[in-house]
Amino acid sequence: MKGKKSGNLNLLRKEIQKIQLILIISITVLMSLGGAFINLNSMEKDFNQNLQNTSDLITRIYGFIRQYSQEEICSYMDNVVSELSEVDIISIVDKDLNRVYHTHHELINTKYDGTIPDFSIHTTRFYTENDIGPSGPQRRTYSAVYDQYGRYCGFIMTICLKTSMTTVSLRILSLFFFVTLFAILIEIMICFVISKKIKKEFLLFTEDFEGTKILVDSMRANNHDFTNKLHVILGLIQIGEYEKAASYIQSISMIQGQTIHSVMNSIENPSFAALIVGKIARASECDVKFILQDGICFRSRDIDVPSEALVTITGNLIDNALDEMNLKEHNFDEVKELIFGVYTKPGSLLITVKDSGGGIPKEIGNKIFEKGFSTKGSERGIGLYHTKQLVESMGGHISYESQEGRGTCFMVRLEK
Which of the two residues, 304 and 150, has the higher pLDDT score? Predict the structure, then answer.
C-alpha cells in the first residue's frame, strides 16, 4: 500500500511538471507568433513609408537634374540608387510615357506600357499600390513630376519587388523561430532545475510523511507495551506489593528512557530512529529481547540513502527475525534475542540483524531471496525478495550467515 501511495504521488508530481512544461512552451510559442504577426504587419507599413520617403527624395533630386543630358541623368541616378539598399527599381517616365531612366538600363528609352497612375483621385503627389511589372509582382509608389510652372511632366516609380519583401519576411520569421527555440530551451533548462528542486522537496516531504507514519506505528506499539506493563503494575498493587510496583515503575521508566535516548543519539535520521524505537516496542510484545550492538552509529553526512529505503530494508529484516523467533514449531528454552547493528563511515553503510531463531536449513538457503518463496505459508515470500531488489538497485549487497538451531544474521552493505 505504501509503494502504491508513493507511486501515485510520483505520478502526480510528474503530471504537474508535464502540464507546467506544456503551458510554458505553449505561452512562449503563442507570444512569438503574436510578435511575428505584429512585426510583419508593421513591416508592411514600414515598406510603404520607406517607398514613399524614397520616392519623394528621388522626385526632388530629379527636379534639380531634369535639364541634364540623358547620360548625366543615368549616371547620377545610378549613384543614388546604389545607396538605396531597400529599393529594387527606380523608373522615371515622361508625360509621353517614354522611360527617361530605369534601373535596368536596357529599358531606358523604351515605351512604358504598364499601369498609368491617376493622380487626380489622390490628394497627395504620390500613392502606393501593388502591381506587376517586367520584374514580376511588386510594391510600387507613384510620384508625379511637375515643372517650375506646375505643369505635369511625368511620374516616377519607386519599386520594391515582392521577392525582396518575402526574403525580409522570411528573415524576420527565422529570427523569431530561433529566438523562440532558444527561449524554449532556456525555459526547459529552468524547468529542469526547478523540477529537481521540487523533487528534492517532494522527497523530503515524503520522508517526513513516512517518518510521521512510523512514529504513529511506534506509538501504537508502545501503547500496547505500556498497557501490558500497566497490567503488571495493577496486579502488584492489587496483591499489596506496593514496593515491588514502585520498583517496577522506576525500572521500566529508566530502561525506556535509556533506550530512546540511545537510539536518538546514535541514529541521526528521524524516520530511521522512529522505526527502531517502534520495533523495540514490538519485540517486547513478542517476548523478544531487542539488543542494540555497542557503538551503533548512523550519520546522514556519511552516506546518502533515502529514508524510505532505510525503513523498508531494516523493517523487513527485523520483522522476518521476529516472525522466525515466534513460529509455533520452535520451542526455545533460551531467551529469544534480536541483536541490531548499524554503522556508517564516509561512503559506507552496514546494517546487521541477528536473531536466535531456528536458522535457515542448507537445502533452502539458495531460495530465500526468490520471489514467493516462504516457509511461513501462502501469500508470503515477498519481504526478502523486495529487500534484495532494493539493496541491489542502490548498488549494495545483502548476505547472511546461519546455523540451524542457533539463529541467523543478515548483513546489508552499501558503498557510494
Answer: 304
Q: What percent of the chain has pLDDT over 70?
A: 74
DSSP string, 254-299: HHHHHHHHHHHHHB--HHHHHHHHHHHHHHHHTT-EEEEPTT-BB-
What grid cell was written down for 254? 529508566
Which residue(s) pair with 52 in the sheet?
Answer: none
**Cα-only R_g, the chain:** 45
CB 187 within 8 A of CB 16: no
For residue 241, the 8-state DSSP code is -
Q: What angle do CA 234, 331, 401 make, to 5 degrees?
A: 115
pLDDT tens figures, 178-219: 777 777 777 777 777 776 676 666 655 555 555 455 555 555
pLDDT digits (tens, 9 = 90+) for 320-376: 899 888 874 555 566 789 999 999 999 999 999 999 988 888 888 778 888 766 655
Q: Alpha-carbon distance 45 to 240, whole Å?
A: 107
Cβ–Cβ under 8 Å, residues 39 and 180 = no
Complete edge-to-edge strand list for the sheet that includes strand 99-102: 99-102, 89-94, 152-161, 136-146, 126-133
Give pTM, 2 decimals. Answer: 0.45
Instruction: Give the position of cell 541521526.
Output: 268
In whole angstroms, what is the distance from residue 362 CA to residue 252 CA?
Answer: 40
Q: What residues does 90 pair with on adjacent strands? A: 158
- Bridge partners (DSSP) of residue 351 are 342, 412
Q: What does the alpha-carbon distance between residue 339 and residue 355 come to, in Å, rounded to a whole number?
A: 6
| Burial environment of residue 104 by CB neighbours within 10 A (0 to 12, 13 to 18, 19 or more) | exposed
CA distances in angstroms from 142 to 126, 157, 331, listed in the order given: 5, 5, 113
Q: Which set of grid coordinates corresponds to residue 98?
A: 517614354
Assigned C-alpha cell, 283? 519485540
Is residue 143 within 8 Å of residue 56, measured between CB atoms? yes
| Partners of 133 in beta bridges | 136
